[in-house]
Write a structure and sequence with these properties.
This protein is of the alpha+beta class. It has eight helices and 14 strands. The longest helix has 19 residues. The protein is globular. This is NUDIX hydrolase.
Length: 267
């Protein structure tokens, strides 16, 4: 069993947690979305070096669940929150929040919106000053996601999301997330844009190319992103990704001590 060697500051915290001197912080519910387009290629953002969590890492769009994401007022089409709860082993309220967070955060961080006027349609353009004003209002939480959809007469399209994985941040971290991963195809007519905020660079990359860049030390990938990209690299088309059979198993990397050295392992 091999793992990732912990830096000294995390090794010390791991020692304290294993000894019971320090309690792990709770993990916050979060969602992240792999946006796909033909190639297949995935949309990645590089988090600013000043960010408190995953600074400098290339990640998929996503973030924490806002308490208002569980609002029953959110217009909904596709598999129900109860259905999603069964997939992810969560209660209905948590599942509702996760799906809403997935759609909301994707729009906030890429400009892509998985919603439409009806259950069989999707918006084809989210550019323009009015859309940008709404996006910024969602980010600063002055606008609730349910109100955003209602104002525009839109329904969330949960059927456009595919469940992919479930990762929980290791207990040694001071910021922890209980994250469900989704995959979704870039809707026809929509396009991603550099929307700033937590990222200083965005890029479309083939999964295998992103993994290779990480091997070469040219980009930094967190373990969940790295594994997801490796899994996606086995698919030769967007259709293959959507058709892939996924068993959602919770992955919580743990710390082990090997010859006096602390390592993080996922198996």
């Amino acid at each position: 069993m091999t793992g990732l060697r912990l830096p000294d500051e995390l090794a010390e915290r791991a020692r304290d947690i294993l000894a019971g001197r320090v309690q792990p912080v709770p993990a916050r519910d979060a969602a992240t979305v792999v946006i796909l387009r033909e190639g297949p290629e995935v949309y990645l953002l590089r988090r600013k070096a000043t960010m408190a969590f995953a600074a400098g890492a290339y990640v998929f769009p996503g973030g924490s669940v806002d308490p208002r994401d569980t609002d029953h007022a959110v217009a909904w089409a596709g598999p129900s929150p109860a259905d999603w709860g069964e997939v992810f082993g969560a209660d209905e309220a948590v599942a509702r929040g996760l799906v809403c967070a997935a759609v909301r955060e994707t729009f906030e961080e890429s400009g892509v919106l998985l919603a439409g006027p009806g259950p069989d349609s999707v918006v084809d353009d989210t550019t323009g000053d009015d859309w940008e004003a709404d996006r910024l209002a969602l980010i600063d939480r002055s606008l609730a996601f349910a109100d955003f959809l209602a104002k525009r007469g839109l329904v969330l399209r949960s059927d456009l999301l595919k469940p992919w994985a479930h990762w929980i941040t290791p207990e040694i971290e001071t910021r922890r997330f209980d994250t469900r991963f989704f995959a979704a195809v870039l809707p026809e007519g929509q396009r991603t844009r550099d929307v700033g905020g937590e990222a200083d660079q965005v890029a479309w990359k083939r999964p295998a190319d992103a993994v290779e860049l990480a091997h070469e030390g040219k980009i930094f990938l967190m373990p969940p992103t790295y594994r997801t990209l490796n899994e996606l690299a086995a698919c030769d088309s967007v259709e293959a990704v959507l058709a892939a059979r996924r068993e959602i198993v919770t992955i919580l990397p743990r710390v082990v001590e090997v010859d006096g050295e602390f390592q993080l392992v996922t198996a």
